[in-house]
């Protein structure tokens, strides 16, 4: 079983990793381009697994899990470079969904 990590832990690990390089974090525009590339790679994997587009025999084996991991990594880099605490960002977004969208979706019955 994997260690339980908080978003703060993950942000710290990524910062420690990036800090060892003189180049540091990429610019926000470069990170947005990188994120777009990674989302495209995830789209390709999802399409291969659940869509109508099979992989070519010459295509490298990849996984949705790794593509999501790449997106998480670039998201953390993006947030770190801009001084954004992802736990706070998550809490704000969840609050927005719980208030703005409180009656938007059909709730499950809680009775068994």
From TrEMBL:
Coiled coil, from the record: none
Pfam families given in the database record: MazG (PF03819)
Domain NTP pyrophosphohydrolase MazG-like: 26-105
Record's protein name: NTP pyrophosphohydrolase MazG-like domain-containing protein
The organism of origin for this protein: Paenibacillus allorhizosphaerae
């Amino acid at each position: 079983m994997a260690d339980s990590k908080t978003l703060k832990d993950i942000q710290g690990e990524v910062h420690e990793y990036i800090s060892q390089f003189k180049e540091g974090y990429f610019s926000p525009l470069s990170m947005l381009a990188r994120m777009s590339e990674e989302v495209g790679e995830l789209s390709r994997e999802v399409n291969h697994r659940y869509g109508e587009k099979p992989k070519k025999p010459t295509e490298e084996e990849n996984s949705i899990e790794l593509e999501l991991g790449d997106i998480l990594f670039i998201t953390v880099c993006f947030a770190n470079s801009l001084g954004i605490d992802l736990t706070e960002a998550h809490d704000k977004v969840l609050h927005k969904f719980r208030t703005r969208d409180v009656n938007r979706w059909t709730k499950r019955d809680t009775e068994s």
